[in-house]
Design goal:
By secondary structure, this protein is an alpha+beta fold. The protein has 3 helices and 7 strands; from the N terminus they run αββββαβββα.
Length: 109
């Protein structure tokens, strides 16, 4: 399944609402009946700074500041029937590197 199709599935399931912390999708992949999104946090140079102080424009930005540069997160959806996918929170996980994705894929049955 191509990246655009997988992204469309995630958009449909989550109503176009990104994870507020891991809000920058890097890539999507499929493994069996699972589709996965790998996203990262904001990088320090992407944070909004005003006169050397962090300026909040949104209450969730305080969480973004706490998690900046904190690796990546894999969000997992499982195909249940036809086009129906459900969010598998038990399989979603934080990862530190792309190399850890191979170990993660082995956990998907």
């Amino acid at each position: 399944m191509k990246q655009k199709r997988i992204k469309a599935i995630f958009d449909r399931v989550f109503n176009n609402m990104p994870n507020p912390i891991f809000c920058y999708p890097m890539f999507y992949f499929q493994h069996g009946d699972f589709v996965c999104e790998v996203a990262r946090t904001k990088q320090m140079n992407e944070m909004r700074w005003n006169n050397r102080e962090f300026e909040l424009h949104n209450p969730l930005e305080i969480l973004e500041a706490l998690f900046v540069d904190d690796g990546m997160y894999v969000t997992v959806l499982e195909r249940k029937q036809g086009r129906e996918f459900i969010h598998r929170t038990d399989l979603c996980t934080h990862i530190e590197s792309k190399n850890e994705i191979n170990a993660f894929v082995r956990t998907l049955k």
